[in-house]
Amino acid sequence: MEGFVEWFISQGGILDRTTMALQDIPNQGRGAIALKDLPEDHTLFSIPRILTLSTRTCDLPRLIGEETWKRSQLNKGWSGVILCMMWEESRGDNSKWSAYLRELPTTFDTPSFWSEDDLKELQGCALVDKLGKQEAENDYTAKIIPLLQARADLFDQSLLTTTYSLHNYHVMGSRLLSRSFQVEKWEGGDGDEGNTSAVMEAEKDESLIVAEPHSDGMVVDSNGETNHPEEDEDEENSDEEDDEDSSDVAMVPMADMLNARYESENAKLFHEATYLKMVTTKAIKAGEQIYNTYGDLPNSDLLRRYGHVDLVEIPDSNGMMGDPGDVVEVPADLISSVVGTDPEQLKERIEWWLDEGGDDVFVLDRSAPVPDVLVSFSKLLLLSEDDWGKAQSKGKPPKPKLDDVRTISLISEALRKRLGHYPTSLEDDEGLLKESGNCSLNLKNALVVRVGEKRILKAAIEHLSRVKLTLKSLEGPEGGSSGMKRKRVSNEGKQARKERR
């Protein structure tokens, strides 16, 4: 790591070696450790914007030409920045990022690199459908290969099966997925972060320096806090990536050396006119690890993006270990499949729900065993034709109240069916997890993800069962609530007494 640190400083990076050191950390790879007690709001290191690696700072887009770059669709998604990374790697020591690229990982524990047998351990988990590996390969074939072949003057043809191979495309994409940041163009500058004179000129303008971080959390603007790209894009080339400005996606040397852990963040990266600064957000004791967390993600996303899972104590769980941020997804079509009605009869309702902005996937977590949108959608499917017509005319879905047994039974059945998507039971997985000392890392990580999701489903089913029992206990002999029955009897008694008078 010493060579990387020397390179970082030689390229204009600022690092106080008396406060922080990079080192190998058991089960976490490389990370940063505080060498002495650090106060809140202490700058750990600063990275010149021109040292970030993106389509703005790399010369390749300019050499290819803006028109060709856009015609090749390299301005959309991550294909362009991946190609820039491969090109810079091909240049060896002629690239100013060579020392940095040599330090980046070449192997990954993410499911995109798992064997087919290991992937079977994730059966039932929604993350399998989010890997995006095939989409990435389609982009490589459609966007990258034609340009590699057309511009032999830029791309060494002897490297087509190595540096420019599909495998290396996946490697670079995984580096981006796990380590990149969203670095927007600085407002007030000319936008050329690769232009040294422009950077030096910007340094003279004190008005561009931000004293306070932006308060919008993971959403970043050019005058505020920087963090990792949005957590819901799938892989190298997801639909969400097409919506973002791909030139904002950047590799940020030194900043990407910090690890992440659930609710352990003690440092954040902030924008300034010409530098990005990693600043402590709370006091850190000597010997403690410095974390820059990318949002408190569920283990399914941590595994998909970074190849690891979190095991921390879950609040109010009697010492249960897992990820408090775990979620499980329930597709809307799973709910409709258990209604017991001809799917064609429900099609109009489902399309109306989606047209009104309703979700087609419902997310359950520990804080909300049964989300309101799931309840509302389920009640919509069960409406009588008359009530369905009224809902349409009002433009409002049913209120999300768990106040009838039919809705509760429908959701319960759907969640049990969702639980059946996993080939093993929760009890089996918890037993395997206790004995996971001899398991492979992939199997252990898959077990952790499966157990977390199944616990949420089990908790939701148990919650619904309790609500159902409560409702049934209130039902009177005629099917109404006992409270309503008592009120009706009481009123009849009053009328009888009046008649006797």
From TrEMBL:
Residues 489-501 have a biased composition (Basic and acidic residues). Keywords: Methyltransferase, Nucleus, S-adenosyl-L-methionine, Transferase. One of its GO terms (cellular component) is nucleus. Coiled coil: none annotated. It comes from the Eukaryota. Residues 210-248, 473-501 are annotated as: Disordered. GO terms for biological process: methylation. Residues 11-295 form the SET domain. InterPro entries: N-lys_methylase_SETD6, Rubisco_LSMT_subst-bd, Rubisco_LSMT_subst-bd_sf, SET_dom, SET_dom_sf, SETD3_SETD6_MTase. Residues 230-247 have a biased composition (Acidic residues). It is an enzyme of class 2 (transferase). GO terms for molecular function: protein-lysine N-methyltransferase activity. S-adenosyl-L-methionine-dependent protein-lysine N-methyltransferase that monomethylates 60S ribosomal protein L42. Belongs to the class V-like SAM-binding methyltransferase superfamily. Histone-lysine methyltransferase family. SETD6 subfamily. This is Ribosomal lysine N-methyltransferase 4.
